[in-house]
Amino acid sequence: KFGIHGNFFDGTIPVSFTNASQLDILDLSDNIFTGQVPINLGDLKALQRLNLEHNFLGSNASEDLSFVISLPNCSNLKILGFDGNNFGGVLPNSIANLSTNLDQLALGSNQILGKIPVEIGNLVNLYMLGMEFNHFSGTIPISFGKLQKLQALALSGNVLSGEIPSTLGNLTQLYELYLSDNQLEGTITSSLGNCQNLHLLDVGNNELIGIIPQQIIALPSLSITLNLSQNSLMGLLPPEIGNLKSISALDVAGNNLSGEIPETIGACLSLETLHMQ
C-alpha cells in the first residue's frame, strides 16, 4: 500500500511506481500532481485501488487518458478514481475491459469528450459510477440497464441528448440518480418508478416534455430531493405527491405546469424546500 493523499506533493507521478509489483493500493489523491499519468500502471498486476482524484493531472489533451488502456491488466482492480483533474480527450473503449471486480468508477469533473462507451454496461459489479461535469455527448447508453448493482449514477453537467432510457428502470438498487444540466429530451420514463430504493432524482435543467409520471411522484422512497425544474413539463401536479412523506426538497420550478396545487402536498411532512415558481 502507498497512500499520500491530502498533502502538497507536486511534480509528475514517477514511472518507477510500477517497480513495486506487489502494490495493491496507490492513493495519490488531493495533492497537486501535474502532467501525464504513467501509461504502464497496468504492470501493477496486484492493484486493487487506484485513486488519482483532485490533482492537476492531464492537460485537456487527446492523450491524457492513455494510461487507462493498460489498466485491464489489473485484474483485481476494484476502485478507480481520477475525478477532479484536467483530463481531456475521449474515454477509451478499453475502459470496458477493466476488471469485472470493479465496483467504483469515478471520472467526474474533467474535460472528457465524446460518447459514453456502451461497453461500460459490461462492468456489472459497479455500485458507483460518476461521470458528471465533463463534455460527454450523445445518448445515455441503454446498456446501463445491465448495471443492476448500481446505487449511485451521476451524469449531470454534460451535453447528453436523447431520451432517458427506460432500461434505467432495471436499476432497482439505485439510491441516487443525477441527470441534470444536460440536453435530455422526450418524456420522463415511467420505468423509474421501478427504482423502489431511489432517494434522490435530479433531472433539472434539461429539455424534457410531457406530464410528470405518477409512478415517479408516488415513489415513497424519495427522501432527499426530487428536482424536475427548468424543463417543459406540462399538466397537473399529480395528487400522488402526497406519497412523498419523507421528501426534503421538491423543485418543479420553470416548467409549464397548470391547475391547482393538490391538497395532498400537506402530507409531505418532511418537506424543507419547495420551489414552484
UniProtKB/TrEMBL annotation:
Keyword DNA damage attached: no
Cited SUPFAM superfamilies: RNI-like
Subcellular location: Membrane
InterPro entries with a match to the protein in the record: Leu-rich_rpt (IPR001611), LRR_dom_sf (IPR032675), LRR_R13L4/SHOC2-like (IPR055414)
Gene Ontology CC terms: membrane
Signal peptide positions (record): none
Major localisation: membrane
UniProt keyword list: Glycoprotein, Leucine-rich repeat, Membrane, Repeat, Signal
Domain of life: Eukaryota
Residues covered by the Disease resistance R13L4/SHOC-2-like LRR domain: 67-203
Name of the protein in question: LRR-RLK
Species of the source: Vernicia montana
